[in-house]
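for ur thesis appendix - Restriction endonuclease subunit S. copy paste whatever u need, i formatted it the way the template wanted (i think)
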Amino acid sequence: MSEALEQSDQQEGYKTVQLGPREIPIPDEWDIVPFDEAIELNPKYDKPDNGPFDYLPMDAVDEEKQTIEYWTQREKDDCTTTWFKNGDTVYAKITPCTENGKITFIDGMSTEVGSGSTEFLVFHPCEGVIEERFVYYLSNLPEFRSVTISLMEGSTGRQRVPSDVFKGNLTIPLPPLPEQRRVVDILSTVDEQIQQTDEIIEKFEELKKGIAHRLLDNGARSESKSDVVVGPLSIPLPESWELRRLENFPTPASSVVQTGPYGSKLQKEEFTDSGYKIYRQANINSGDFEKGGQYVTEEKYHDLEKYQVVPDDVLLTRMGTIGDAAVLPDDARKGIMDYHLFRIRIDPSFCLPEYLSGVLRSSRIVKHQIESFSHGAIMDGLNTGLINELRIPVPSTEEQREIVDILSTIDQRVSIEKERKIELKQLKRGLMQDLLTGKVRVDTD
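the 3d part is after this line
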């Protein structure tokens, strides 16, 4: 990335390539080629008679990272008609994976050829025409993806990109091979920085998990402990701590725990594109309270006053990933929770919301109770009665603050790294747009 990038004159020396409904200016010396002259779709590889073969399920590809999280193995008779090799790009063809950008570069496969979900399209680079990773980056170009999305066929919820999209009229911009290689080098460097940032985030999150377990079970101070019995477990707890049922926590609300509205009270037909936000399980799992685009009108918001959430409410997941928790931040939009969440509203002079959220996520005492409650109840989820029965370890508010401050220090470092990742991804998007269209040229000398 150290080489100087020269800004091209877009008035002269440019021609246009048609990508779907859009015309994109590209340098005159670039080629405009049919897709199938540069990229072989779903190649028919020779397969050895004996397996097993590496197999790539659809959910093994992380949409956000565009990485392969795991492989399985299958015998030849159990494989699909989708085959690929290292150096190929796989492109999800079914909704919503296509729209979400489930695309990945095949690398590090342990078998000569591998198989995968039939919902993947395989892009194989034609040797001497296009670089392997250039195919991957070109597949991520918004204009390219928009063409495939706009031409999807099938019933709502099961739409697919037909193979015909890549035959005949679809053309792609193609720079000379030396320029392709420099573009790949630059974009790969940014990808490596994003990956390194991800690894730093993961290390800090693992560090926080370990420290949280220690603090929330043993406390931030050195003091003697006595055993408390929780179900079949006998667990040492600092002697100054109290073990109190959640329903007996002081609260400014009519009850400590409130579940979200049942389906009959909040139906999909009542969702709007703006207004008062509906908070969902995904907000808690990700810690991102901006995520999601479902809202209700002001009238519906007031009708569902019982289910409104406000800053410092602790939100707890009741289905799926049971027992995940987060505190609604001060800058969160006004809104309500959906049926898959509990709202826990407590008096902060007795228990800090951030402390309670941490205990619900990480305390061995609490996790044991939640796991015992949820055993056999995964489909229906937890109910308010069970959550009210949770026995929560409660130190003094001073010690709660010490624990929260220690964990917040790690959170701040994670936030810094996440901001850096956002900046890197924005840089990558901008570079892709500029380099893959020739708006910015690279020095190949």
